[in-house]
Amino acid sequence: MYSLEEKICILFGEIGLSSNKFFQLTDLFDGAEELVAELGHSADAEKLLGDGYPALCNALKKHYYDKIVEKAEKNDIVAVTWYSEDYPEQLRNIDDKPYVLFCKGDVSLLKSECLSIIGTRKVSSYGRRIAKDFTAVLCDYFTIVSGLAFGVDTIAHETTLDGGGKTIAVLGGGLLNVYPAANSGLADRITENGGLVVSEYGLTAQPFSFRFPHRNRIVSGLSKGVLVCQAPAKSGTNSTVELALEQGKDVFVVPGEIYDMGFHGSNRLIKTVQGACVTSPRDIVDFYGLDNPAVSGESYQMSIEEQTVVNALSEGPLSFDDLVIKTGLPPAELNFLLANLELRSIIAKLAGNTYRLYGGIE
Question: Does the N-terminal or the C-terminal CB of the chain have fewer CB atoms within 10 Å?
């Protein structure tokens, strides 16, 4: 059962009242009962709400929140409000905090240790590999948060589920109006496998374009840190990073080829955000001082490119430059492959930027 305060949050969230106006409005009254009784007679409230004032008063008078609760329950949706014990503390401390979160799935994940993995919708093959390989490791340590968009978001959610991890998808529209529609199946898979899909917008709210940058403050707000897998110069990813920095979150960025337009935003972030550059998921694991159990190379299915590196090292240690020549791989891609193979204890790094197979002759 919801308290009257929570029902008011549910109603206002369904109608689309902004967080800023919600907190200003509730400050005008001494509790929920006074708000319900006096809203229709408050000149201050009318001035604050403007054209939306009559509709909101009417909805409150007719207890429209009961219909919303009933509809939510029929769809296995629960509301976590500003007044709920389940409301995550990390969101209480951000600017423009949401006052209601409509949730489907495991609500307890809101209070788990989260890491956001984000990036462009138009992900390259290299960016795809970054998102997949980093997520495959990091989902062992964190609940992975992303936005259910195409590209990096989808890869992060799917890889987490494939690895048996937990993931949260934050939507830019209502839970009964999943966008993109092609990812509605992924949203179902998330909830069916112990994850969580969440939105601050009404149950059937339209996924208007302006809502996606706005929801990004929740993506970053839920998380300890944000990992950027790939971002061009102009990308919604950059807005999430800006919000994360304002919120005091850690920002991690994987570098890309300097001539690849798809990584111009990523490389610019590395130049402007101190300590952001990471070349292995181990960098993030070590940053937070987490245990990092060795992963057996025998149980790991290497990619063709990784096997090429291993074959090159089978005859003995090689420097990074020699590996570039012998494998024919671009330096940026080779650097990423080496970091991943080292993380999995398949190879070891020696002094002088030289590498060998794990257990080989130094």
Answer: N
Q: What are phi and psi of 172, to 5 degrees?
A: -100, 10
Give the pLDDT confidence of 188-245 residue by residue, as tens digits. Answer: 999 999 999 999 999 999 999 999 999 999 999 999 999 999 999 988 899 999 999 9
Parent domain of 333: 297-357
347-350, strands of its sheet edge to edge:
318-319, 354-357, 347-350
Question: How would you list the strands of the sheet with 78-81, edge to edge?
Answer: 78-81, 100-105, 196-199, 167-170, 143-146, 114-118, 225-228, 250-253
Does a structural domain hold residue 251? Answer: yes
CA distance 46 to 131: 48
Please report the DSSP string for 195-247 in residue order.
-EEEESS-TT----TTHHHHHHHHHHHT-SEEEE----SS-HHHHHHHHHHHT
Residues 170 and 231 in one domain: yes
The angle subtended at Cα 25 by Cα 249 and Cα 32, nearest 5°, is 105
User: What is the tally of structural domains in the chain?
Assistant: 3
Residue 115 is classified by DSSP as: E
> What is residue 301's predicted lDDT score, i.e. its pLDDT?
77
Whole-model pTM? 0.81
Q: What Rg, from alpha-carbon coordinates, does the chain have? A: 24
Task: Give yes or no: residues 138 and 216 share one domain.
Answer: yes
